[in-house]
Amino acid sequence: MTTRKHDALGRLIYLTAQTMRNHVERVLKPYHLTSEQAVLLKNMDISTGRPQSELCDLVGKNPANITRILDRLEKKELIIRRDNPDDRRSSLVFQTQNGQRLSAEVASLFTTISARIEEDIRPADVAVFKKVLGRINTNLQRLSEYRGDENE
């Protein structure tokens, strides 16, 4: 079986993402959080509520997944949902004080993880890598929107 260059790149991206996710899940285990829960928690605050639909867009999850994750965070008393005064069909999501405290701790962990990931890599190389990953993501989004014959 032969491997094309773009197949190898996709596999490397997949394996790196999987390794990163596994590491983050291990680090978050003592906090009883998953990476999905931590990302949502750090994208809200105690005073400014966010609509659930905005959280979906922010973290790239569908409404059913966001609802499930928020249910678990609410059960842990880390977030609270309140009626949206501007749209009675939706609710706003706020951190609780416990959520804010935990979010700050987790943000510190993420900062440390990011620094360790970038160890021994020149800042210029990190910038190029981010730019290339952004282009790959854009290309993938364009591909997913394309509905024609994949062999064309």
Structure description:
It is a single chain. The protein is mostly helical. The protein has helices at residues 5-28, 35-42, 52-59, 63-75, 97-117, 123-145; strands spanning 50-51, 79-83, 91-95. The chain has a domain at 17-114: Winged helix-like DNA-binding domain superfamily/Winged helix DNA-binding domain (Arc Repressor Mutant, subunit A), CATH 1.10.10. 64% of the residues lie in helices and 8% in strands. Strand 2 and strand 3 form a beta hairpin. Helix 2 packs across helix 4 (63-75) and helix 3 crosses helix 4 (63-75). The two termini are 23 Å apart.
What is the CATH C-level name of the domain at 17-114?
Answer: Mainly Alpha
The beta-strand count equals: 3
Report the oligomer.
single chain
Helix % is 55-70%
Write the layout of secondary structure elements.
Blueprint: H1 5-28, H2 35-42, E1 50-51, H3 52-59, H4 63-75, E2 79-83, E3 91-95, H5 97-117, H6 123-145
Antiparallel strand pairs: 1-3, 2-3
Helix pairs in contact: 2-4, 3-4
Short summary of the structure?
With 152 residues, the protein is mainly alpha-helical. It has helices at residues 5-28, 35-42, 52-59, 63-75, 97-117, 123-145; strands spanning 50-51, 79-83, 91-95.
Highlighted features:
152 residues; single chain; globular; mainly alpha; Arc Repressor Mutant, subunit A
